[in-house]
Amino acid sequence: MSTNTSPEITTNATGQGRKSLTGGDGAYRGLLSTIVVLVLAVVVVFVFKLAQQAIPGFKLAGWGIFGGTWNFGAGQYGVLPLVAGTLVTTTLALLFALPVGLGTALAITYLIPQRLRLVVTSIVELLAVVPSIVYGIWGLLTIYPWLNTTLFPHLVSWSGGAWPFNGTYVGQGIFLGAIVLAIMVLPIIIAVSRDVIAAVPKELTEGALSLGATRSQVIRKVVLPSCRSGIVGATSLAAGRALGETIALATLLGGITTTSPWPDRLFATGSTLSAEIAIEIGGITGPPGKVLFSLAFILMVIVGGATYAGRVIVRNAQKKFQ
Amino acid sequence: MKKSYRSSAVALAASLAMVAFSSAQAFAGTPTVAQYLANDNVKTVPASQLAMGGSSFDANLVNADYPIWTGQDQSGKNAASLSAYQSHSSGTGRANLMNGTYQIGFSDVPLNAAGQDTADTTAYAQIPVALGGVSLIYNITFDSQHVACQSLLNQYGLNLSGVTVGHIFDGSIKSWGDSQITATNPKLVVTVGKTKTNCLTLSSSETIKLLSRTAGSGTTFILQDYLNAVDSANFPYPTSNAFSAAVATESNSAAMAPAVAGLPGAFGYVEQGYGIQNGLKSALVGGVADTVSNVAADATQGLKLINASTCNSFSTDQPTTYVAANVNTQCFTIVNSGKGYPIAGFSYAIVAKHQADQATAETIAKFLLFLAYNGQGNNAINAYYTPLPAAVQAVALTKLKEITYSRNGVATQALSTTL
Amino acid sequence: MTMTNATEARDIIRAKALSSVKRRENLSRLYTATVALALVVAIIPLTSIISDLVGKGGQFLSWGFLTQNVHTPGFNDPHNVGGIANAISGSLIIVGLAVLISVPVAILLAMAIHEFNNRIMKTVAVIVEVFVGLPSVVFGVFAFIALVVTTKHFLAYYGSLALCFIMVPVSTVNSVAALRAVPATLNEAGLALGSKPSRVMFRVIFPTALPRIMTGIFLALSRTVGETAPVLFVTGSSALVSWNLNKGATTLPAAIWNNLQQGSPYAALECWGIALVLILFVFFFNILGRIFLARAEKK
């Protein structure tokens, strides 16, 4: 099943490009306009309601919201540790998932025999639809004890406690979150990469092979470069899923504490913007709960900005080709 | 001769009957309440299903009793009237009660006592429904060299003095081998070479990894009320905030127990049942274990103290403005009385005194009456709660009588006036 | 040069060529090994999850599990967890309503984005893309404030409305791409023959794009069925099977969450059973979508 590799829908490559509908097609135009107006109304209500709740939150936090200390119970609302947590977990997850996912896609396309290919791709596709909460329980019940009893002690003794393996470990933390996030986005990267790799014209690969290139040269110099934009698309899809993850991370990250105010070492615990909202949602109607709406608002701004920036980049890249 | 036999037989039978009758009374509560709950035929269903939830402390008790209450009415009306318990935290229970989404909010922290809400306490009834102990659960491991230590620990358990508990939670004690801890565990000793060493210094998980609940937890509040008694310098008044010495925070009791179970060296706190469910041992405090009967001893002593204090009633209303120093925890039931297991507390169902209509008021009042009476006894014990003492049940009844609705413009009591 | 030098030169070149080939082949083997390693590293956690799902969850699959309601286990009967009938009915009605609302809205919105190309529609397209990337907890929080707190009720259809926020943007993006994939020549031909744009759309373009649209909708559906955060805060719960959208309801992901809140290891084990049922549902929709796609492409 092919997946839409890019969320980009505003550049009108082959669209109709009509500015208005002429002729007696009023009903059609009316229907479409109504839907657009409805949707815009809902969006306006959404933004308005969030802002309405977020503004008291910003007032409560004051300029401290740009500070570096987050302690919801004690009234400290600096969001930078949350933003840092979001970025660190996503980056670590992608650092792990991209090479592994790409390699797996290559393996599926070029290494695995035809009969096994169906089995492996079915497993990958099944895992693409596993709900986040299941990853959460898998992480907590299976990985968490293993980290505490096996992996972390070995890392500490092997590195002698040097950075980034310094400080106490608790199992929960950004490492566990990043690992589970990585496994979550792995099926996406594998699926998209596989599509893109399979789309490389056979003439190119066979031509290169006939010229005497080794397999790895074919992959490195022919296949991967032509897949570059697809891989970028896969990365952005994966990043989108990782950034938006809430429920799984809420159980796995361990929260911001005095021993881990920042995600500055591998064993640190932490929190992300969305996980923090989920954790503290119980108090959302109380006075400090408004700050959670401020977090939601900040999330909206960040995602909006990233989406816009992403498309500016894509548009510039496309301009280069034109 | 025969006549005297007969009369003594009658006397014996009469006294046996009296014993049986009074023990039946003691077991089932006042006969009028049991009869009332059994015979009540008027069960109108509220227009929309009522919602309840809050503290994870009472979750196990409510979840044990709710199926019985909904099963009693075979037409399923009770299930249609009141939805199942939503377990989050005490803070959530109170917050959702305030914003009207829960009709019954369960909280171990009375209104306004933790500085998180500013409610008009005269408008709410706070009904004690559960009594339980807070277990201090630990995970101390030993490597294969010291297997004997593991079996010693399993046999005797970990014993902490009150002061030591305070120092662990304020962060001044950082390792299991600390002299304050080994001093209270003289039985955990093995001979290594020629010297006797305390097992706790040989643990493979040297550092104490303290886990805390996130803000809003009533279990934290109960624990901090105890810490205030043993370490008032670092805990001047109880709050429901997370402990700053903790290395990780958990969102509720159900997450805390598995977290301790999976982390060697961990130390946490949960309502008693959660620790037992997950196969965790809990520490003895001052030589006393967290059991149903030890908590009962604590509560009995604590009630005597409360009644002797300046409080007018059990669970007195709290001031509407929160000043930490003014919150008199002795007045509303956190029990650390000096007898029995000291870290224990009551948990409350908080409801608005005046309800919108008869069906809502009756559903709420009757469910909570069931919880406080029929729902105690073996149901509570099997869920690792201590059954409410009779005096506390009487207070619950008094509070429940404050639930009213408007009939013809007059505030009418939801429960029958014969109770 | 002399013959010897030529021979030497030839040998040198041949040696260089051979060593180059050897080097490249060794490099190739190294790369193959790396790629294989990546596959192994990927397969290990993936199979761990599958084995947990099937091994731990499979023991719960039974007709009784699917038809009984949830039961909170007591301490003396910790295995009496009941079933998930209430969660299945809840998921069906909540997701069903979400689909009923989202699919027409998404398709019509996609048509609008495709047909018009003015400033407003460009903004709308940007907004839709932003919503695709927003974490679901933001929608849950909004639904809680806008619906639950104002009406003071926890109702099932609030969950449906919150899920629409997730389904509509994803389906719209996919539908627009599907509509764009239809060759422009079809549209031009239709218009040249004098048909109204609406006729061209509904008779030509939309049917051509339909297989891809349906696939995308099934994809969105499979994601929506597994969503926890938006539903958890607004639907309340129901311990009984209920087909009434105007009351509380529990979905399958919410049932997993509720099980975790109980704190007993057996309840946590049951989570895998619920997850397995959930995934089987999702797979069912997936396969339906593929059958649809295959039949449409046969035509």
Outline the structure in words:
The complex is a heterotrimer of chains A (322), B (419) and C (299). Chain A is an all-alpha fold and 322 residues long. Chain A has eleven helices and two strands; from the N terminus they run H-E-E-H-H-H-H-H-H-H-H-H-H. Mean pLDDT of chain A is 82; it is low at 1-7 and 11-15. Chain B contains 15 helices and 14 strands. Chain C is an all-alpha fold and 299 residues long. The longest helix of chain C is centred in the N-terminal third of the chain and has 56 residues, at 3-58. Chains in contact: A-B, A-C, B-C. Chains A and C meet through helix 1, helix 2, helix 3, helix 4 and helix 5 of A and helix 1, helix 3, helix 4, helix 5 and helix 6 of C.
Count of helix runs of chain B: 15
- What percent strand of chain C? under 5%
Radius of gyration of chain B, whole Å = 24 Å
Q: What's the multimeric state? A: heterotrimer
Q: State the major sheet of chain B.
A: 8 strands, mixed
Write out the strand line-up for the largest beta sheet of chain B, numbering strands in chain order. Answer: 2-1-3-12-4-10-8-9
Main pleated sheet of chain C: none
Principal-axes geometry of chain C comes out as flat
Strand content of chain B is 15-25%
Q: Roughly what percent helix of chain C?
A: over 70%
Summarize model confidence as the mean pLDDT of chain C: 85
Q: Residue share in helices of chain B? A: 25-40%
Distance between the termini of chain B: 47 Å
Q: Would you report the number of β strands of chain B? A: 14
Poorly predicted segments of chain B: 17-29
Choose one word for the global shape of chain B: elongated
Termini of chain C, distance in Å? 71 Å
Strand tally of chain C, please?
A: 0
What is the rounded Rg of chain C?
28 Å
Secondary structure layout:
The complex is a heterotrimer of chains A (322), B (419) and C (299).
Chain A: H1 26-61, E1 70-71, E2 76-77, H2 80-111, H3 114-128, H4 132-159, H5 174-198, H6 202-210, H7 215-226, H8 228-243, H9 247-252, H10 273-279, H11 290-321
Helix pairs in contact in A: 1-11, 2-5, 2-8, 3-5, 4-5, 5-8, 6-7, 10-11
Chain B: H1 2-28, H2 31-39, E1 52-54, H3 59-72, H4 77-81, E2 86-87, H5 90-98, E3 104-107, E4 124-138, H6 147-156, E5 159-160, H7 162-169, H8 179-183, E6 189-192, E7 195-198, E8 209-213, H9 218-230, E9 248-250, H10 253-261, E10 266-271, H11 272-277, E11 284-285, H12 292-308, E12 344-352, H13 358-372, H14 378-382, H15 390-400, E13 404-407, E14 410-413
Parallel strand pairs in B: 1-2, 1-3, 5-11, 8-9, 8-10
Antiparallel strand pairs in B: 3-12, 4-10, 4-12, 6-7, 13-14
Helix pairs in contact in B: 13-15
Chain C: H1 3-58, H2 63-67, H3 85-115, H4 119-133, H5 136-151, H6 156-181, H7 184-192, H8 197-225, H9 229-232, H10 252-262, H11 265-298
Helix pairs in contact in C: 1-11, 3-6, 3-8, 3-10, 4-6, 5-6, 6-8, 7-8, 8-11, 10-11
